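[Automated response] Your request has been received and processed.

Submitted sequence:
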Amino acid sequence: MNENHRRPSKHRLEEHDMLNWYKATKKRIAKGELSEDRLEKFKTLQEVAEKYRRLNQYK
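Generated structure:
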Protein backbone atom coordinates (compact mmCIF):
# COMPACT_ATOMS: atom_id res chain seq x y z
CA MET A 1 0.00 0.00 0.00
CA ASN A 2 2.82 2.39 0.79
CA GLU A 3 4.53 1.57 -2.49
CA ASN A 4 1.48 1.97 -4.75
CA HIS A 5 -0.36 4.57 -2.62
CA ARG A 6 -3.61 2.60 -2.76
CA ARG A 7 -5.37 -0.45 -1.37
CA PRO A 8 -5.33 -3.84 -3.13
CA SER A 9 -7.67 -3.84 -6.09
CA LYS A 10 -10.22 -6.50 -7.00
CA HIS A 11 -9.65 -5.61 -10.65
CA ARG A 12 -5.95 -6.57 -10.76
CA LEU A 13 -5.27 -10.30 -10.90
CA GLU A 14 -1.86 -10.02 -9.22
CA GLU A 15 -3.50 -8.44 -6.16
CA HIS A 16 -6.34 -10.95 -5.67
CA ASP A 17 -4.41 -13.05 -3.14
CA MET A 18 -3.58 -10.02 -1.04
CA LEU A 19 -7.16 -8.75 -1.14
CA ASN A 20 -8.57 -12.18 -0.22
CA TRP A 21 -6.13 -12.44 2.71
CA TYR A 22 -7.14 -8.97 3.90
CA LYS A 23 -10.85 -9.78 3.81
CA ALA A 24 -10.38 -13.22 5.42
CA THR A 25 -8.35 -11.70 8.25
CA LYS A 26 -11.09 -9.13 8.90
CA LYS A 27 -13.59 -12.00 9.20
CA ARG A 28 -11.29 -13.86 11.62
CA ILE A 29 -11.08 -10.73 13.77
CA ALA A 30 -14.88 -10.49 13.87
CA LYS A 31 -15.05 -14.12 15.04
CA GLY A 32 -12.32 -13.53 17.63
CA GLU A 33 -9.95 -16.11 16.12
CA LEU A 34 -6.85 -13.90 15.76
CA SER A 35 -4.07 -13.85 18.36
CA GLU A 36 -3.22 -10.60 20.13
CA ASP A 37 0.16 -10.34 18.41
CA ARG A 38 -1.32 -10.66 14.93
CA LEU A 39 -4.21 -8.39 15.86
CA GLU A 40 -1.81 -5.57 16.73
CA LYS A 41 0.07 -6.02 13.44
CA PHE A 42 -3.18 -6.05 11.48
CA LYS A 43 -4.36 -2.87 13.21
CA THR A 44 -1.25 -1.04 12.01
CA LEU A 45 -1.95 -2.34 8.50
CA GLN A 46 -5.52 -1.08 8.73
CA GLU A 47 -4.25 2.38 9.70
CA VAL A 48 -2.23 2.46 6.49
CA ALA A 49 -5.23 1.17 4.51
CA GLU A 50 -7.45 3.88 5.98
CA LYS A 51 -5.02 6.49 4.70
CA TYR A 52 -5.66 5.24 1.13
CA ARG A 53 -9.42 4.81 1.44
CA ARG A 54 -11.33 6.01 -1.61
CA LEU A 55 -13.32 9.16 -1.09
CA ASN A 56 -16.59 10.00 -2.73
CA GLN A 57 -15.74 12.54 -5.40
CA TYR A 58 -19.27 13.95 -5.49
CA LYS A 59 -19.37 15.33 -1.94
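Summary generated for your ticket: The chain has a mean pLDDT of 85. The chain has one domain: 1-59.
If you did not submit this request, please reply to this message.
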